[in-house]
DNA sequence: AAAAGCCCCTGGATGC
DNA sequence: TGCATCCAGGGGCTTT
């Protein structure tokens, strides 16, 4: 489910309200992708310093320890303040009660994870975050970096974007959307991309992610932020999930193909 | 080293 | 209505 915009929208929806909170109790449901990596009692009394994000990972910094959260395909968080009653739902698998409210990870498919790390040198943290590419919305991302990285790869441009080793956070929806905006066919070999095209792609990635964050992310099945609010980006989609429908630019029917076991959508006229 | 495939899991949509 | 099949936003791990 969640790509960078959804993770960031989630973060923004509860980061301020949980900051400074003291953990009172943690309860686990069914196993997630990995074990928590510590006893829940160990978390009791720790304080939330801040909530940050790296790619699609959320980092709840407890200073010096860290809870690394991933929403997988179907995960969502909700934060319920102390004034509202704490609800209990099917597929709640991590429930963290604090003096400022309760943070719950709900994840039907359980591809998500909550993992404890002692600090930023933790092997587990390094394993998960160590090989990630640059953050697309920071100054570390540039057209030159994108161009050079794409040149050196031998796979399709869409898979190069999805891989996360060049740039993080671009998932299946936004890869298709960014490539449409950049007028690049997703099946094109990464290494054949020109400088002009990588500049367009750089700008497309930034604008599509920024716009998606502005409108609250994409709600395709049941994504909502930690306040329970839906996103609306899917209403603006140019190609994603629009197979057979007319291109919004040229009216040509949008095509759907499969790349690396995932659906890709593009306009055969606009994108080359 | 890099690329390609294989899974983990549940639920909703579709088709018979 | 009931049941089978297919598909879904991710990404680590294993195999080529």
Write a concise keyword list for the protein shown above.
272 residues, N-terminal domain of MutM-like DNA repair proteins, 7 helices, 10 strands, DNA-binding
Notes on the structure:
The two termini are 28 Å apart. The chain has two domains: 4-129, Alpha-Beta Barrel (N-terminal domain of MutM-like DNA repair proteins), CATH 3.20.190.10; 143-266, Helicase, Ruva Protein, domain 3, CATH 1.10.8. It is 26% helix and 20% strand. Helix 4 crosses helix 7 (195-214) and helix 6 packs across helix 7 (195-214). The protein has a four-stranded antiparallel beta sheet with strand order 1-6-7-5. It is an alpha+beta fold and 272 residues long. It has helices at 4-18, 40-43, 123-129, 143-151, 157-162, 172-181, 195-214; strands spanning 23-28, 50-54, 57-61, 66-70, 76-81, 92-98, 101-106, 113-117, 255-259, 262-266. It has seven helices and ten strands. It binds a DNA duplex (16 and 16 nucleotides) through residues 1-3, 6, 33, 56, 70-74, 91, 107-112, 127-128, 153-155, 159, 162-164, 171-174, 218, 220-221, 223, 240, 260-263.
């Amino acid at each position: 489910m969640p790509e960078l915009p959804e993770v960031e929208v989630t973060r923004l929806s509860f980061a301020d309200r949980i900051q400074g909170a003291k953990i009172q109790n943690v309860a686990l449901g069914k196993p997630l992708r990995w074990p928590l990596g510590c006893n829940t009692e160990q978390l009791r009394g720790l304080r939330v310093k801040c909530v940050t994000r790296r790619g699609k990972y959320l980092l709840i910094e407890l200073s010096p320890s860290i809870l690394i959260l991933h929403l997988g395909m179907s995960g969502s968080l909700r934060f319920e303040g102390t004034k509202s009653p704490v609800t209990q739902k099917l597929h709640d698998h991590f429930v963290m009660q604090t003096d400022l409210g309760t943070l719950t990870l709900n994840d039907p498919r359980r591809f998500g994870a909550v993992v404890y790390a002692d600090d930023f040198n933790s092997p587990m943290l390094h394993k998960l975050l160590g090989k990630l590419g640059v953050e697309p919305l920071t100054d570390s991302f540039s057209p030159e970096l994108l161009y050079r990285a794409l040149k050196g790869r031998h796979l399709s441009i869409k898979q190069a974007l999805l891989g996360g080793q060049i740039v993080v956070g671009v998932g299946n929806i936004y890869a298709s959307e960014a490539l449409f905006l950049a007028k690049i066919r997703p099946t094109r070999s990464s290494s054949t991309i020109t400088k002009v095209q990588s500049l367009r792609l750089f700008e497309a990635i930034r604008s599509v992610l920024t716009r998606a964050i502005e409108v609250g992310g994409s709600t395709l099945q049941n994504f909502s932020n930690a306040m329970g609010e839906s996103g609306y980006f899917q209403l603006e989609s140019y190609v994603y999930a629009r197979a057979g429908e007319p291109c919004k630019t040229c009216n040509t029917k949008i095509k759907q193909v499969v790349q690396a076991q995932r659906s890709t959508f593009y306009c055969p006229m606009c994108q080359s």
